[in-house]
Amino acid sequence: MPETDVKKHEPSPDFVKHAHVDAAKYEEMYKASIEDPDGFWGEHGKRIDWIKPYTKVKNTDFTYGQVDIKWFEDGTLNVAANCIDRHLKDRGDQTAIIWVPDEDDGSDQHISYNQLSSHVNKFANVLKGMGVGRGDRVVIYLPMIPQAAYAMLACARIGAIHSVVFAGFSPDALASRVNGSEAKVVITADGGPRGGKVTSLKDNADKAFEKIEHDAKLLVVKRAGNDISWTDGRDHWLHELEDGVSDDCPPEEMGAEDPLFILYTSGSTGQPKGVVHTQGGYLVYTSMTHEYTFDYHDGDVYWCTADVGWVTGHSYIVYGPLANGATTVMFEGVPTYPDAGRFWKICQDHKVAQFYTAPTAIRALMGKGNGPVEKYDLSSLKVLGTVGEPINPEAWNWYDQVVGKGRCPIVDTWWQTETGGHMLTPLPGATATKPGSATQPFFGVQPVVLDAESGSVLEGPGVEGVLAIADSWPSQMRTVYGDHERFMNTYFQQYKGYYFTEDGCMRDEDGYYWITGRVDDVLNVSGHRMGTAEIESALVSHPAVNEAAVVGVPHEVKGQAIYCYVSLMDGHEPSEELKKELQTHVRTEIGPIAKPDFIQWAPGLPKTRSGKIMRRILRKVAANEHEQLGDTSTLAEPEVVDDLIANRLNK
Ligand code: WTA
């Protein structure tokens, strides 16, 4: 349980003076958003441009069996026109994207809104020329280069649905996502430089194509200049297809509830599911949270260090900031290359005002000491943000004192791929923060803490349970791609009438929320979300493996590490060699982020008499907390546990 009785950090009067929202305004707006969602969102929905204005605002139903979520349903718009065209008149020459490459060689690019427009229109015409139209799916498998943003916006412009696959995923993971969405075109690059090393994404895409079951084309961006192989007829260079193409592609008129993108994310069971977000509500909510959560003002340079392969990159590198006409930084590299001062050098070079990163990066950099931070002038910073996992108070304090010099409010934003945008977060001019707490709900968000067993609502302060949301908000996911049943079963079945977040949570004496982590079998490794079931299924697909169980163990920098218990098929013996082989196998099946940290050979796994693996016990053993195993009376073979304890690895 977190220590909640801690000193509050009040926003400074100076900050409050210039902030969009102070404490009183937050109360007033929050109240209005809950009492009259139609009125509130009807008004704030106007922050984006509509082709045909909506007359209906909210039409949502959380009833299990008939879950249906619609916002602004009769309005029409184009998301790319909102992120580009509408800014051209007043800020065509303003920088839209500052691109910072992996190498620190001064070749950073400033891409103006006019230039962004030209790139996106051309890209859109190229996709059209490849036969992509409204409703077709396009998979984007790119490094952090401007073309990733162009590709997303080009899809939005022509009404195609993009599905970005993180460039760190393996060919198999890419293939399953291309197959799952039946994408017509896959967009990749020859190679992606990160931390001084080039990954040949084209090679990965080639391997993926061996497993792609339908006819698809591959569009290749030239980035690293590495050697690649080529399949005539299937593969096309972007720069060749762009040659001579018009930079005028009229935006499609899309319905507010037409899908904008699919993003695959891990859950507790089965393979990753395709989270579907739609056009109108998503853009209203991401642009609004971007402005309010970061207290973004015109002229600020804003930087979110996430990758566009994750939802954070979608909502807070591309769509939210660009809808607001912001200047958004896109960084190709890693925090520690060429050295641990890289983030801070970029903040200095580009006078970054809002900086948004993950606790795992903060912890890793904290481990390098204060020197690399103090070398740079960080006086441009105004607001610091975190996302992805709970932040421990030590890291919070270091961020506050060493990076923010005690003068930048920290916004600890809790949200999920499914929620599209920030759900619990301080607003920098309004909320007194407590290290480790995501504090209070954003406008329109109604969090409830439920008793995990009974599902009853726990009222008042000082309660702990699971976090659910009582009513819809505009950027809520609408469905699982092609499987609405799965959507309802995952989020609306267990606690009827609520959206279940699958996070544990407590509400303290001030009404602040503290996320305690996932209550399902989802791991959070360096802010990357992974299902234990996916890793287990990768392990058992190896011929030597009979059974596998995967749990997370606390890790100082990564948040969690991956701990696997593996029992082998008869005829296979444990060895260091086999361990390495299994690690490589999981890397190949899923990607480097899923590589097991620990593999413990387990002759048997602790199961109940009905055959259910008792993960609680496995978690305790892995965390070296076997003194507190809890109730073991339902174990079928108690002696199995003694063996696991004797051979545990994380001592
Ligand atoms: C966790 C990332 C505590 C949480 C935007 C959630 C957090 C999962 C926070 C979603 C935070 C995210 N404090 N935990 N500020 N932000 N999480 O879908 O467990 O990659 O359910 O979305 O990350 O991860 P996802």
Automatic annotation (TrEMBL):
Protein name: Acetyl-coenzyme A synthetase
Domain AMP-dependent synthetase/ligase: 85-471
Binding site for Mg(2+): 540, 542, 545
HAMAP family linked to this entry: Ac_CoA_synth
Positions that bind CoA: 194-197, 312, 526, 587
Organism whose genome encodes this protein: Palleronia pontilimi
Annotated SUPFAM superfamilies: Acetyl-CoA synthetase-like
Annotated family: Belongs to the ATP-dependent AMP-binding enzyme family.
Residue ranges constituting the AMP-binding enzyme C-terminal domain according to the UniProt record: 534-612
PTM annotation (N6-acetyllysine): residues: 612
PANTHER family recorded: ACETYL-COENZYME A SYNTHETASE (PTHR24095), ACETYL-COENZYME A SYNTHETASE 1 (PTHR24095:SF14)
GO cellular component terms, A-Z: cytosol
